[in-house]
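Lab notebook, design round three. We kept the backbone fixed and only want residue identities now. Task for the bench partner: fill in a sequence for the structure below.
Input structure tokens:
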């Protein structure tokens, strides 16, 4: 994927669009295979250009149009779309990039996901299920700690800044979507948590409601500004996720209460 699609100017994006569409038309799997590397390169280039403060990149819709067009036109069927979404969320939850570009990468991935023309419940189920797994593994154990344990940062260190930022952004994005699709979908999703999601399940073959396709972009501007603020601690960011959130896997959260460092379990 050409990084100039999302890191360059509007004029550069228009020129790169034609190349992207030709490449994806000739080999649709390329979109999933190259998207992660392209977004990492774009985030690095944006950082070098001094862009990306607050929600600047996330709010620039023109950066994401060609990718959304390629997704809608050339990824037909459940498997190609699932492959692309798996690749995109895996990139979102990876901390392999340098910290200086991680927040820009987060804006790019969130901006793309928020605009993708999702049409089936299976697509939304893939994203939400992946976010639930991420929150359960990376955030839920810390949220179960009491104030005394949280103060003991040597034995109970908080998640990294990148993890906290990723968690709150994707939590807000997914809760926005769940509000649109309703309680029945959320109930079906809860039944898959703690297990591998099988999209062969016909429960997720339905089209997303019309309200979903007409949705306004989730309001992440204030959240990106808070993330960018030097005064916002990691704990303050995680406070954006309520402990009774529908995205927290309650069974895994309960098990996390029993997870203590060896020094704590032994009483040392």
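Proposed sequence:
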């Amino acid at each position: 994927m050409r990084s100039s699609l999302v890191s360059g100017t509007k004029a550069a994006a228009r020129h790169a669009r034609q190349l992207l569409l030709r490449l994806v038309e000739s080999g649709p799997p390329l979109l999933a295979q190259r998207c992660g590397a392209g977004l990492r390169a774009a985030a690095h280039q944006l950082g070098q250009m001094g862009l990306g403060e607050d929600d600047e990149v996330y709010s620039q819709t023109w950066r994401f149009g060609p990718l959304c067009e390629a997704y809608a036109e050339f990824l037909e069927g459940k498997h190609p779309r699932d492959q692309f979404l798996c690749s995109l969320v895996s990139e979102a939850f990876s901390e392999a990039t340098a910290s200086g570009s991680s927040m820009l990468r987060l804006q790019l991935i969130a901006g793309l996901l928020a605009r993708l023309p999702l049409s089936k419940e299976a697509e939304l189920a893939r994203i939400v299920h992946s976010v639930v797994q991420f929150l359960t593994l990376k955030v839920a154990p810390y949220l179960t700690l009491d104030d005394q344990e949280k103060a003991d940062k040597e034995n109970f260190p908080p998640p990294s800044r990148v993890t906290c930022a990723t968690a709150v952004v994707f939590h807000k994005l997914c809760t926005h979507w769940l509000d649109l699709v309703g309680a029945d979908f959320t109930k079906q999703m809860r039944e898959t948590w703690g297990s591998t999601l099988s999209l062969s399940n016909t429960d997720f073959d339905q089209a997303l409601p019309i309200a979903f396709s007409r949705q306004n972009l989730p309001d992440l501007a204030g959240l990106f500004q808070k993330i960018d603020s030097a005064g916002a601690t990691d704990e303050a960011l995680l406070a954006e996720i309520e402990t009774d959130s529908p995205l927290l896997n309650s069974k895994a959260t309960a098990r996390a209460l029993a997870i203590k460092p060896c020094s704590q379990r032994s009483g040392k």
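Keep this in mind before ordering anything: The mean pLDDT is 81.
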